[in-house]
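Recall the central idea of this unit: under ordinary conditions, the amino acid sequence of a chain determines the structure it adopts. In this exercise we apply that idea directly, starting from the sequence alone.
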Amino acid sequence: MAEYGGDFWYVKEGKTDPSFGGFVKTPQGWFLIHEGKTDTEFNGFVNDGVFCWYLQEGSFSPDAEGVFYGEVKKETGWWNVRHGQVVFGDDVVKKNRSWWRVERGRVNFSYDGIAENQYGKWYVRNGEVDFSGSGTALFGGSAYQVEKGRVMEEISSVRTRFIAHRGLSAQAPENTVRAFTEAGKAGFWGCETDVRETADHRFVIMHDDTFERMCGVSSRPGELTAEEIRKLRIISGKHLEDWSDDESALRVAFLEDYLEVCLQYDMVPVIEIKDSAQAQNETDQKRVRALFDTVKEIMGNREVIFISFDFESLRQLCRISREEQADHVSLQCLSRDPEHVPVSECSELGIGVDLYYKEADPPFISAMHEKNLEVNTWTVNDTEPVFVLMQAGIDYVTTNRILWLDFKGTK
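Accordingly, the structure predicted from this sequence is:
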């Protein structure tokens, strides 16, 4: 390169070459040559075979930072430039007052979703961070709490231990094989159900004291045999009409049915014991033992959680678990009121707490964690309380809905 008349000329073998056009690399950097001299009006990109550089006014600018327009590898668009070089990676980069979603170095103006850079995660619409966006947003199988474009918290089936309450009971009749299957297909970490003993000492899945609400029969589970219960039909429940031809939604399930679905979808069984136990009642003790053995026979050493409002049942299960050295078995004390939780005994026995979610405030959760006790909550069916609970360090969330998919959208 040689300067003449205020222009820089391309020199080859000591002579200028007015017919030359292209890019030339010199110790001072890259220059664009047009008809033998530098094109000082050119702003764009040049590829040296290894890197792609951005030129300003015809020369390489090592200070160039941000998003610049031009053609790179035969693709025209806005490109992420750092230290004068195109960065072919995914990022969120700043251009003037806007932040843009970059994919493989190029701004993607059609991108709607969550993007991440060194400053955090961001809510992006049409390729640009929406700093006015606040509320709950859904992208890629997760729900996000957004404040002024920035992601503050995330709900996902992977990040949070969500438990499907009586199966996915917002999509199918509660406590049916269909409800359990829908929970498994949705990706729930755990699946909660209710067990009661039949007249012939089997374990049937039923929340209520009787079959009246679900089957139109006033009998109690303990008054009927398993064979008699199998003849009953489910007559109520969410979206029952959608499952009118599906036997798995129309028949009462038994413990074995439930556990098989948990195995199939790798869900943790969360089993609520509905029948009460008495410390000196041999029949009740046998029932609790039979429940434990039935679960163990099917689940083996896989993780299992037993929950109950009846603390005596939990005491008996705690004793059995210790005798069996069943470290995979966890226990949780159900309660509507934190003041009624026997915290000292829970701490002594290692029994966690399963509390009504409106009572599970951050101080209570923190106090339980200080005693090495986990905290579950029921039944949370909206995203906003989940964000609050997550920020408080909740261990489990029991819900009827797929909270990471079911949301109202950003405000």
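Residues 113 and 335 are 39 Å apart (CA to CA).
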